[in-house]
Structures are given as structure tokens and as C-alpha cells.
Design a protein that fits this description.
Structural class: alpha/beta
CATH topology of the largest domain: Aspartate Aminotransferase, domain 2
Distance between the termini: 13 Å
Number of strands: 17
Strand order of the largest sheet: 4-12-11-10-7-5-6
Number of domains: 2
Shape: globular
Largest sheet: 7 strands, mixed
CATH superfamily of the largest domain: Type I PLP-dependent aspartate aminotransferase-like (Major domain)
Length: 392
């Protein structure tokens, strides 16, 4: 069983224990691979939880961030900066007309969406999904449909109702005159990689409340289009982005469609570090890199990966889209994660029985085949109970 090295453990007790004790210390990354402090390499199909969208140390955002570091690190939002304006313009063009608010994380983007909807509609109610995940700050947690994460911090914000994914009747019943926002992930990520059906999202868009699509994990090309909502045929009122937007530098965004813009005025919201020039410069490079050719490659490699996963032992179902894939397995997902790590492959769990694969969008066919081979070796060990037990 792999255990943290003495060097790794030193100093870990100085951190608040909000994460499991780590099994590995990552010190370097390049492309789809990372190396630990013992010199061992791993094929990274977790990508920092879908954050390192272009792979580790991709030259485009790296060069953009380095150049910006030599010009300006921070100016505060009392002043304009070129990278923030350029990023807002790029995202508006991709969306088809929107205003952007920049922050530092997905949870902050959700908080901005919750406030915007309340201000725009005058209605505090929110409808979200059972199993959905939107973050761990108080408002985002209140809209997260996972009781294990919510209950230790109750009471949370009132007026939030949860419905099952893809249940149109339950959605319609939950919406009344108190509801100002419907908040959905196009594919529930932490909730088990559960795609929403186009007809469910279309009905949500047709109802009176504002529709916010949480594209923190699905956005910026992850599913094979820049926004997942493009494949659903829906134009939401609000979109939240983060994770892959700056390839690992902290940035989040709320996009407000031009049709519903105007609710926020100066002083309504803010973020000291939001729109940081270095992060925004890197994000501009990422947006430029996610072009038609890369999106086609995401679809191609996603289909190759999904087909290969379907034939592996113990895999009951493969679901997801593009390079956001989940495999429902016949053993604890944590055992598969551990068995893969022991063999040099990093993957994620998404609940008790779903293993999540979110490799860099720049993954190549040989790396897909390598991952499939490592999974084919890891799954029997996990199924037989001989895989190492994950750290508590």
C-alpha cells in the first residue's frame, strides 16, 4: 500500500485538514504527465480536476502569463486593464453577446450568479438538482444537492429546492412565483458524470426564472464545444466558468447574456483579485487555443476513450461527453483510483461507484491507449479487493 513519504507528511499538519492526507507530492508537470518528489511519472487523466485544460506548462498560456508578469501584476478594479477587457470580449464573442464579471474560482462565480438573479428578478428562490455540485462557499453550498456536504453547515440559505436530474414534471412543480433562478450543470460532474437531456434543459430555459448553466467543469471545450450548452441547443441567461479557463491560474467568470444585462450597478458586487491581469492574459491564450481543430480532437479522442472504456472488466456504464467521462464500476470507485495511481495513472472519483476521467484537451491517441491499458490492469485488482485502500 502506498503511503505518504516522511518528507510529504512534514508540514502537512500545518494545513487545515479539509483534504484527505495526500499520497503523492507533485513537483513538476509537462503535457499530460506529472512527476512526484520521488521522480516517478504519472499519466494525468485528472488534470487538476479538469483545470489544466491544455496540459501542464502549455506554451501559449505560459508565455502570456510570463509576458504579463513583466508588465503588470495587479491594478485593482478601480482601473481598467487590457487583459480583462480582452478576455471579456473573447468570451462575449464565443457566447454570442454577454457581459463578464471576473473572480477567482467557480464558487465565487456561482455566488455572483445567485446575487445577480436575486437582484434582476426580485425573487430569492432557486431550483437546483439533486446530486448537483456548485461549490463550498455558503451560497454555492446551499445550492449543492448533496446532503453529506450540506448537513454539517446547516442552516444554509433558505428557498432552495432540489429536483432529480432530467425530471421535467418535478422541475415544473418546483417553479413558482418565488423562484428567480434555475441552476443546472449540463453534466453533473461531482454528482457522478450525469448528462442532462436536451429536452430537460430546453424546458428549464422556457420557464420564467433566469436559467444559469454552471459550466465550470463542462466549459472551455471540455465536452467538444466551447460551451456544453451549444450541444444542448439552449442559450442560457447566465453561465459560470472557471477550472480550465486559465489552464491552472485562478480565475472564474460569470457571463450575463445581453438580453438580461443591466441588473448590477457599481457597488453591487466585486472581487479584489477578480480580473487579475496575469490570470486574464493566460485565459485569453487558452480561449484562443480552443479552436475548431482542438474541439474536433476532443470529440475524436473522447469517442476513442469511451469506446475503449466500455469493454473493460467491471465497467457497468460509460457516460459523459467529449473528455468528461465517467465509468460506473462494480466496486468502490476509490479502489480503482488507488489501483490506477499505483500503476502510474491519475484518475478521479465522482461518488461511490463512478470513476471520472478528465484528461487535458490536448491528449493524443497514444496516451488514450496507454490509459486504457493501465485501467485494464488496474480494474481487476480493484474488483478483487487487492487494490490499496484509499487514505481516509
Amino acid at each position: 500500500m502506498s503511503r505518504p513519504s516522511d518528507t510529504l507528511s512534514q508540514g502537512f499538519d500545518r494545513l487545515l485538514p479539509v483534504y484527505p492526507e495526500p499520497e503523492v507530492t507533485i513537483v513538476r508537470g509537462q503535457g499530460a504527465r506529472v512527476w512526484d518528489d520521488q521522480g516517478r511519472s504519472y499519466l494525468d487523466f485528472g488534470a487538476g480536476i479538469a483545470v489544466v485544460a491544455l496540459g501542464h506548462c502549455h506554451p501559449a498560456p505560459l508565455a502570456a502569463a510570463q509576458a504579463q508578469l513583466e508588465r503588470l501584476w495587479h491594478a485593482s478594479n478601480l482601473y481598467a486593464t487590457e487583459p480583462a477587457r480582452e478576455l471579456a470580449t473573447r468570451l462575449s464573442e464565443r457566447f454570442g453577446g454577454a457581459q463578464a464579471f471576473f473572480c477567482n474560482s467557480g464558487a465565487e462565480a456561482i455566488e455572483a450568479a445567485l446575487k445577480y438573479a436575486r437582484k434582476a428578478t426580485g425573487r430569492p428562490g432557486v431550483v437546483a438538482l439533486e446530486g448537483g455540485f456548485h461549490g463550498r462557499t455558503l451560497g454555492a453550498l446551499s445550492a449543492t444537492g448533496q446532503s453529506a456536504k450540506r448537513e454539517p453547515f446547516a442552516p444554509l440559505l433558505p428557498g432552495i429546492r432540489f429536483v432529480p436530474p432530467n425530471d421535467v414534471a418535478a422541475l415544473e412543480e418546483a417553479v413558482d412565483d418565488d423562484v428567480g433562478l434555475i441552476l443546472l450543470e449540463p453534466i453533473l460532474g461531482e454528482g457522478g458524470v450525469v448528462p442532462l437531456l436536451p429536452e430537460f434543459v430546453a424546458r428549464a430555459a422556457a420557464l420564467p426564472p433566469l436559467l444559469c448553466l454552471d459550466e465550470i467543469q463542462t466549459g472551455v471545450g471540455r465536452t467538444g464545444s466551447f460551451f456544453a450548452c451549444e450541444q444542448l441547443g439552449v442559450r442560457p441567461d447566465l453561465v459560470t466558468l472557471a477550472k480550465g479557463l486559465a489552464n491552472g491560474l485562478p480565475v472564474g467568470a460569470l457571463l450575463v447574456a445581453d438580453e438580461v444585462a443591466g441588473a448590477f450597478v457599481p457597488g453591487d458586487h466585486g472581487s479584489t483579485f477578480g480580473g487579475n491581469p496575469v490570470a486574464c492574459a493566460a485565459a485569453c491564450a487558452v480561449v484562443d487555443a480552443v479552436d475548431d481543430a482542438l474541439l474536433a480532437a476532443v470529440r475524436e479522442h473522447g469517442a476513442r476513450l469511451a469506446a475503449g472504456l466500455a469493454g473493460l472488466p467491471g465497467v457497468r456504464e460509460v457516460r459523459g461527453q467529449g473528455l468528461l467521462l465517467g465509468l460506473r464500476v462494480a466496486c468502490p470507485a476509490g479502489a480503482v483510483v488507488s489501483a490506477c495511481r499505483e500503476r502510474g495513472l491519475l484518475v478521479l472519483a465522482a461518488g461511490e461507484e463512478v470513476v471520472r476521467l478528465v484528461p487535458p484537451l490536448t491528449i493524443e491517441a497514444p496516451e488514450v491507449e496507454e490509459a486504457l491499458a493501465l485501467l485494464a490492469d488496474a480494474l481487476p485488482a480493484a474488483l478483487s479487493g487487492t487494490a490499496p485502500t484509499p487514505a481516509a
